[in-house]
Design a protein that fits this description.
This protein is α/β, with parallel strands linked by helices. It has a domain of 283 residues: Methylmalonyl-CoA mutase (TIM Barrel), CATH 3.20.20. The chain is built from 16 helices and 10 strands. The strands form 2 sheets. Strands 6-5-4-3-10-9-8-7 form an 8-stranded parallel β-sheet. The termini are far apart. The model has no long low-confidence stretch (mean pLDDT 94).
């Protein structure tokens, strides 16, 4: 007769655990001492049990994740060389970013277009050019990160106008497979809470479904950013897959997985003590993997202030390679299954986001709230709260607002302007602004550096 090893141990009830904890607290209040509330109004408990398990089906990919190298297209020959080199050194996916049209045949020379996943982040809307690239590659592994609604949210303007932008997408979708991208990363990097990120992304994507119908569903993919709240970020990705599946069912679309491209957030990255950014991006990439990302492109530790360079890109790529090859995370997207804590957070985030999503839809939809400034106002409030927490040291960025190294000088190392640039253009709506939490403090430190330099040279 077979018996389970666990049968030999006496089961302990939840009440017994709480009684034991209460004894150990020696009179301190259980709720005040051990419970804390997240920004998403989720109460985090000191322990979780089988009673918290909800058996969620997140439908995460089962074949591992792609390591993606991001390359800016300026000189196509150099960009092609960088792509080939990255693929030789462990990447199996490339994201090309471009601000102007380019010679795509030279750019893609010697790349295996059938096996390598390619992402094109193009900052202009030229349907003929995009269709040409799509026809040339002719692969389901090609993704065009085109988001006309995201462009409106971030710049305050359409590329042309509402009707023209949607008409151009209509033409593109007839020829290109993965041609619409929805950016949760925009909301994350502007300071939205996780609940807001999920709900806004869902409502954002729903605008495309309402405009084009269910036929567009298999052409939509998502660009995520993950921050440093490790378990909550894992739960965020898992919750979104559940939510997207629920929305698609309303359009009678079944068994269609969300394709998620993920990068670490830039919001918590710092100019001073920049090596800490390596630690931040490592844990964020772990969240991206365990949350179920399809492709992950890491941020270089010096991307805030340095132009793209071989050393920084190699280190960022190797972080993912170490996680994939040496940390046994090669096919880790389902490792969180059965974690009482993560499943509980996932379920609560999904419920909270679904409630907010329904409120947005009942109020006329995402575009209406964006045009009325409601989305911008809510994100600004969340960002302000986070920035105040940073100034009050309730939110810690090591080396920046805690344990500063006064000898750490950055004034002479700046190749890029590391702060938000003022935009003096007329816009249809108030634009969302990506910004880093530590910018005000870093500006002051740079001004102090300038002052000290002038004093020394005076």
């Amino acid at each position: 007769m077979e018996t389970s090893l666990f049968d030999e141990f006496e089961k302990t009830s939840i009440a017994a655990w709480k009684n034991k904890i209460q004894v150990d607290l020696k009179g301190a209040d259980y709720n005040d001492t051990l419970l804390w509330k997240s920004k998403e109004n989720i109460i985090v408990k000191p322990f979780y049990s089988h009673e918290d398990r909800v058996n969620l089906n997140t439908d995460a990919p089962k074949k591992g994740f792609n390591i993606c190298q991001t390359i800016f297209v300026d000189d196509v020959t150099i960009a092609n060389s960088l792509a080939l080199d990255a693929l030789k050194r462990g990447a199996n996916s490339i994201q090309f970013k471009a601000n102007t049209k380019f010679d795509y045949q030279k750019l893609l020379q010697n790349l295996n277009l059938k096996s390598v996943k390619l992402y094109f982040e193009i900052s202009f809307l030229d349907e003929d050019f995009i269709i040409e690239i799509s026809n040339y590659i002719n692969s389901e592994n090609t993704f065009f990160q085109i988001d006309i609604i995201g462009n409106l949210a971030e710049t305050g303007n359409w590329y042309y106008n509402l009707n023209e932008d949607f008409n151009r997408i209509e033409k593109i979708k007839k020829h290109a497979k993965n041609c619409i991208s929805v950016s949760l990363g925009l909301y994350e990097n502007c300071g939205a809470t996780i609940t807001q990120q999920l709900a806004y992304t869902l409502a954002h994507a729903n605008e495309y479904l309402q405009k084009f119908g269910s036929e567009i569903a298999n052409k939509i993919h998502f660009c995520f950013s993950v921050g440093s709240n490790y378990f909550f970020e894992i739960a965020k990705l898992r919750a979104f897959r559940i939510l997207w599946s629920a929305v698609l069912k309303e359009y009678d679309v079944h068994n269609l997985k969300a394709h998620i491209f993920t990068k670490p957030s830039s919001r918590n990255k710092t100019l001073y003590d920049y090596n800490v950014n390596l630690l931040r991006t490592t844990s964020e990439c772990m969240s991206a993997i365990l949350g179920g990302s399809d492709s992950i492109a890491n941020l270089s530790y010096d991307s805030i202030y340095h132009k793209s360079n071989e050393f920084g890109e190699r280190i960022s790529r190797n972080q993912l390679l170490v996680l994939q090859q040496e940390s046994n995370f090669k096919e880790a997207q389902n490792f969180a299954d059965g974690s009482y804590y993560i499943e509980s957070i996932t379920n609560q985030l999904a419920e909270n986001a679904l409630t907010l999503f329904k409120q947005i839809e009942q109020s006329g939809g995402f575009l209406k709230q964006l045009k009325n400034g409601v989305i911008q106002k809510k994100i600004k409030e969340s960002a302000k709260k986070e920035e105040n927490d940073f100034l009050e040291k309730e939110l810690i960025l090591l080396g920046t607002n805690f344990q500063q190294n006064k000898k750490d000088l950055m004034l002479q190392n700046l190749e890029l302007y590391p702060f938000v640039k003022q935009r003096n253009i007329k816009t249809l709506i108030s634009p969302l602004t990506r910004n880093r939490i530590s910018e005000p403090l870093e500006k002051k430190r740079l001004e102090d550096e300038k002052g000290n330099t002038l004093t020394e040279n005076g």
